Amino acid sequence: MSTHRGHMTLPVEAGQEAVVADLFKRWQADALRDSDGTSMPDALAHGDHDVYSIMCLVRADQDFANAHPEYLHRKYLMSSPVTAHEQQLSILPLDGYSKDKYELDETSDPQTWWEVRDRTAGCIVPPSHWHYDSQTQQVHLIQTTPYHEYTVSFLARQIWDSVSMYNALTNDWQGPRIKSVDPYHPQVRAHLKNYFAHWLKTHPDTTVVRFTTFAYLFVIDSGESNQDIYRDWTGYGETVSPQALKDFEKQFGYALTPEDFVDAGYYNGTYKVPSQRYKDWMTFVQNVVVDVASELCEMAHAAGKRTAMFQGDHWIGTEPFLPCYEKIGIDINIGAVEDGVALRRLTDSPGKHVREARFYPYFFPDVFKPGNDPVAESMRNWVKIRRAMLRMPLDRIGYGGYLSLANQFPEFIDHVTQISSEFEQYLTKTQRTQSHQHRGKVAILNAWGQARAWLQQQAREQRFFVPPRPDVMELVGSNPLECLSGLPFEIQFISFEDILTNGIDDDIKVIINMGEANTAWSGAENWNNPQVLSCIRQFVAQGGGLLGIGDPSAWQANGRYYQLGDVLGVEKEIALTMGRVASPIKIDREHELSQYVTNEVTFDGLSYVYAHNQDTRVLASNGQHVALAASEYGNGRSIYASCMSFNMETSRLLEHILIWLMSQEETKTPYLSNNPHIDVAYYPHTQQLALVNASPLSQTTTFQDHNNHHHEINLKGYEWRWESMDTSI
Amino acid sequence: MSTHRGHMTLPVEAGQEAVVADLFKRWQADALRDSDGTSMPDALAHGDHDVYSIMCLVRADQDFANAHPEYLHRKYLMSSPVTAHEQQLSILPLDGYSKDKYELDETSDPQTWWEVRDRTAGCIVPPSHWHYDSQTQQVHLIQTTPYHEYTVSFLARQIWDSVSMYNALTNDWQGPRIKSVDPYHPQVRAHLKNYFAHWLKTHPDTTVVRFTTFAYLFVIDSGESNQDIYRDWTGYGETVSPQALKDFEKQFGYALTPEDFVDAGYYNGTYKVPSQRYKDWMTFVQNVVVDVASELCEMAHAAGKRTAMFQGDHWIGTEPFLPCYEKIGIDINIGAVEDGVALRRLTDSPGKHVREARFYPYFFPDVFKPGNDPVAESMRNWVKIRRAMLRMPLDRIGYGGYLSLANQFPEFIDHVTQISSEFEQYLTKTQRTQSHQHRGKVAILNAWGQARAWLQQQAREQRFFVPPRPDVMELVGSNPLECLSGLPFEIQFISFEDILTNGIDDDIKVIINMGEANTAWSGAENWNNPQVLSCIRQFVAQGGGLLGIGDPSAWQANGRYYQLGDVLGVEKEIALTMGRVASPIKIDREHELSQYVTNEVTFDGLSYVYAHNQDTRVLASNGQHVALAASEYGNGRSIYASCMSFNMETSRLLEHILIWLMSQEETKTPYLSNNPHIDVAYYPHTQQLALVNASPLSQTTTFQDHNNHHHEINLKGYEWRWESMDTSI
Questions:
Q1: Which residues contact A150 (CB under 8 A, 6 or more apart)?
Q2: Binary contact (A120, B579; C-beta < 8 A)
Q3: How far apart are CA A455 and CA A13, in angstroms?
Q4: SS3 call for A223
Q5: B527 pLDDT exceeds 60?
Q6: What's the predicted TM-score (pTM) here?
Q7: Shortest CB distance from B573 goes to which of A146, A460, A534?
Q8: Looking at residue A729, what is its pLDDT?
Q9: Which of B1, B36, B367, B424 is the most buried (most CB within 10 A)?
Q10: What's the pLDDT at B180?
């Protein structure tokens, strides 16, 4: 092994020591890691490099898990709705769910912890009208109303961990079915601490403990044939136990009910506006997990090891944007990064920890198989990631999986060598400093605010898109966040609660509200609040900018569907205003922004949005459906866009939209590339200039620097060039 | 003039006596009419034909109207929302409205009859916080909340009748601006009766009084530059007066408010679910108009004349499907008919009156101008109308406008000659009897029920469609009603109220619910009623059929958006279930209905609908969006279709869907054409068989008669052939 200190974490694999040694050097690695399914060969455990060892404590001791079904992970599930045909009805709660994964939790009394609902009348069935028969595993209801639907919300315990299940079913892993235990219980926590103490002692070569689940996993519900039926990578559904619910009641002064978790079958999906009760439960869980995790980190530190956490599988209770995250004591935050948004999710979180990006593709047979082109997938990602890297510093990179598989694709090895070399230059030239940003902070307003900053905003299109790999959440639909991730603006995520509590900070110059109706992203019922509306109207009237994308401020009330339709100058036709006479659209080609609405800027789909102010200027449309519209409101401005799917031209349009919304279009903006395919970033601390070509073709751009000097630069396809600004370029 | 008694009403025009005489014969006319803008030449007033004379009493005496502004038609308008920037605000109620058409109604006290609302907080501003200044025509508000929007709902009087305005602006008619008076006032009513009595005396040649507005007109709101800004051809907005409101309160025991009319700016559009208060107002107005109209009809009858009413412009208070309509004493109901739905709206209304179809195009310069092809428009209509004529008897046909214009298009004259000749055969062969229908009644369920049977169901697409002629409501979007208008089923329209009051009649075999979410057609909040849901579930479970088109049973509640999604087997993604994992669609090509899902059956647009029952069979899709799905539910069946735009193949699919929903697909159905372009209708009373080819090409069809005899018939393009069933064919 070389003594050169690199910047990459390399996955190892027993029997592939020579490959590891070769790639360690070529890829400029400085750390080795095991992966799920691989272990660290002894020959590699020592050397001038870090050794990351995976630690998933809640599934570490299967003997303990098997001996204690009462400590397994539990969750509330809702039975499928069953229709009564008479005045009595029997429901098998687990009907339709995986019997390999779930058991009814009979350790908690159904009459106390379960709930039966009439979903047609929308009411609770009194416990006196039903009983659970443990013999047949059925719930029997009496006095039902014929042709009403009934559901049972019940506690299930998980006898097969979702990740173990995934690897068994997708990657054909053999071996026992793994169970996870819930460290909420003092007995479990004590046992895991003992286990971990022993582990620390018996792993002297480990320099970094790479935690991959502190307490709870993301939500995956599995159906009858073990197929996924519901997923929420950032949901808090699998954190429930009767004891925790009792303690919650003591702490918050009110009791949660099964309905707070099953949510009429919607399960508080992250894309939904969270109820206050669900947010309270999240806070409760966060406190618990932070407590557990900080204790474990302390133990690791005491043993002379650093701690890392992989955020890809693991979010619940350890969300990096929450203030409590910093209490845990994580030294390295590892994010699974496939695009600019995922990178910003990693790099923008506060705190002093190291940020390490785990890139895709993972070295698994689903991608690394004959006929596949892993370079293409990687390059698609890398183009997006580079953009975002220019805007916020990244510290390390890494990969995971089977190195032997990757090694069968020499072009991929070369490609990663190139990535790593570009990354090395980036570290050298930037010294991990912040690049220059345009004037004015941009705030993204949604129901989650900063807590869920840079979370991909799931859209309806996702359901109607058949992904090449079902386990990979390939986001389709509206992704203006991806455009934004590579733009030189200070970005802040704010919530409606923030506005109600603190108003709008003076340094915020533009507010963006985007996403589909009914979602946490657009805000839904949060718009049914006069204070929110008047606050934003005032903000715009006094010179601010409002950008609405998708269904901004959508909530039907008081004669409007877009509650800020007065500011945005548009309204959506939801079949309530069909009598209003439409005027044919005239596209305004004289607007300052019109020049950036090029052919590459596409507005897919029909918005059903129309201009309803006479002075609304329509800049683009899809037939008679407004796609892009600009308005003035008091001293401020607004833009409505039906969507902003990521590409470089749309990103450049967004950059100019933000500048226009800040009324800065007449001001000279330095480092504003006139070629949409080339990004320019200036690092004032190191006086270095980065120029990155996102296109496979040669491109030329012109821009001005902060001294108003004019530059013209040509880059080869995909080239990333650095220039010192103290020398002439 | 020939003594031949025909079946057509012909418009006359002074100076065109020879043309009239010629066409009277060629078109087999038996009646002459004047039109708006034409009058009856003396030379034609006598003869062996009826003379229809237009009578619009409310605008007949302009001297009276000009002398009595307090009797003009009045309506509630809502001012545009105005945003307060401080704690006081002034609003010009008429801002944005036509000053040529409206005046503020100062004869009624604003403090009593107007209403000011805070549209951001959603509440009424107390009258003590505003006053009206008649000098400036402004409403001044105090104690406003900054950045809240305010509106004034005010009474306006109409100083220019909408029809007069239309003819002046669109057809460049000169002459004074006509005003309409409100016969609600006893003084007006007495005056108009006197006027009418005199008119009857002075029009001895008139045999038919053709009323074209008894009391009130449809709703058209006009903007600042006299452009239409809101239209509702069947709305009751322009029927308001303080006296009527007072009388309403006495009669119904509660007072209506301005908000009941302006409806947050939605104005109770016919496509909206009507409130009980709006329906009460409609009942009130209907009683008034029936009272006025029946008195006028009685006078006409006493003078030895028959009465006709033109339904095209005139609906308010005289809706032919209401039981009270028959009290009026109309002898001839004239409908403006451009398609099958309009024809069925005319022919399906109960009562003994004669049904006369007024065909399009109207002989006006907008169509009859050089370069235009009126035959093409007429033929498009005629193909649809013929289909529907086979299903319900029609008595007469007619045209309107300037005969001299039509006469400049000889192909059009020939074309109408052909239409009239086909109509004559139809009368002869059918003897105005009912054709054979398939088994089982089909009910169409919406918020209006039978009261608004066969009303075109406006869809959102209409707004985003630029019509060739803005005044013609060219319906685009979902029009399964057009498909249905030509199918041999007994059709009944039912309302949710019907179901709640009477349940579902035993003879109903299929219920159709269709239309977009939020509309009166789909039903919106009516679906938030357990009794409606359980009633329909029981109906299907016991063997009935449910057909949902568009957004059937759409209402977000209790964990479902499609409230009957359990029966339909589908759910719509409105961004609340994005975590539910999608399974790629497999199109079922083995279903009994699959053979009818041909390439000509198109499902435009993305439904955002997915199958959510395992046994839902998807028969067609648009990508991963379900377009057509079939389910079984108990002993019954259901079909979901995303849309059913009219064409012959889609109509034939619908015919088979209805047969399948009745579980009759195994039974031999007589007169079921196997060629979608050919309709077959059998008239048992006359033993005549009609065969109609809707396509321009030669077509062959096979079918069985009621004696199970097999027939094979070839028809030329557009041919309509009659066969006697007692002879071999």
A1: A81, A82, A83, A84, A89, A91, A116, A117, A118, A119, A125, A141, A144
A2: no
A3: 32
A4: strand
A5: yes
A6: 0.96
A7: A460
A8: 44
A9: B367
A10: 97
Name all domains of chain B by residue range, CATH numbers in brackets: 64-158 (2.60.40.10), 441-661 (3.40.50.880), 678-724 (2.60.40)
What is residue B465's predicted lDDT score, i.e. its pLDDT? Answer: 83
Q: Which residue ranges of chain A lie beneath pLDDT 70?
A: 1-4, 36-37, 313, 468-478, 727-729
What 8-state DSSP symbol labels residue B146?
Answer: T
Is B574 close to A517, i.e. CB distance below 8 A?
A: yes
Q: Name the residue of chain B whose CA is nearest to A468's CA.
A: B584
DSSP A279-334: HHHHHHHHHHHHHHHHHHHHHHHHTT-EEEEE-SS--TT--TTSGGGGGT--SEEE
pLDDT tens profile B548-593? 999 999 999 999 999 999 999 999 999 999 999 988 999 999 999 9
What are the CB-based long-range contacts (under 8 Å, 24+) for B421-425? B421/B28, B422/B386, B422/B720, B423/B7, B423/B8, B423/B28, B423/B394, B423/B397, B424/B6, B424/B7, B424/B28, B425/B720, B425/B722
Note whether A120 contacts B534, CB cutoff 8 Å.
yes
Tokens of B153: 């709902």
- Judged against a pLDDT cut of 50, whether residue B97 lies above it is answered with yes
pLDDT of residue A106: 85
Helix, strand or coil, per DSSP, at residue B298: helix
Output the DSSP codes for A658-705.
HHHHTT-TTS--TT--SSTTEEEEEETTTTEEEEEE-SSS-EEEEEE-
**pLDDT tens digits, residue range B342-388?**
999 999 999 999 999 999 999 988 899 999 999 999 999 999 999 99
Catalytic one among B95, B100, B291, B313?
B313
Q: Which among A147, A557, A625 is the nearest to B122, CB-wise? A: A557
Cβ atoms of B563 and B533 closer than 8 Å: yes
Cis geometry, peptide bond prior to residue A361 (ω within 30 degrees of 0): yes
The 3-class secondary structure across B354-422, one letter per residue, is EEEEEECCCECCCCCCCCCCHHHHHHHHHHHHHHHHCCCCCCEEECCECHHHHCCCHHHHHHHHHHHHH
Question: Is B551 an annotated catalytic residue?
Answer: no
- DSSP-derived 3-state class of residue A145: coil
Asked whether the beta carbons of residue B566 and residue A83 sit closer than 8 angstroms, the reply is yes
Q: Testing the interface with B: which of A120, A570, A604, A615 to mutate, by most B Cβ within 10 A?
A: A120
Determine the pLDDT at residue A1: 36
ipTM of the complex: 0.95
Query: Which residue out of A85, A266, A558, A567 would a mutagenesis test of the B interface target, given it has the greatest number of B Cβ atoms within 10 Å?
Result: A558
Give the C-alpha separation, B16 to B315, whole Å: 32
Torsion of CA A269, A271, A272, A275, to 10 degrees: 80
Q: Residue B219: list chain A partners with CB under 8 A.
A: 579
- Gap from B88 CA to chain A (nearest CA, Å): 15
Q: Which residues contact B351 (CB under 8 A, 6 or more apart)?
A: B320, B325, B326, B333
Please write the tens of the pLDDT for every residue from B608-619: 999 998 899 999
**Pairing relation of β-strands A149-158 and A115-118?**
antiparallel
Contact call for B579 and A271, based on CB within 8 A: yes
Structure tokens at A585: 């659209």
| Residue among B146, B460, B584 whose CB faces A538 most closely | B146
- The pLDDT-based confidence of B201 (bands split at 50, 70, 90) is very high
The token pair at A204 is: 């002297």
CA gap A275, A475 in Å, rounded: 25
Best of A80, A118, A147, A219 to mutate (most B CBs within 10 Å, chain B): A147
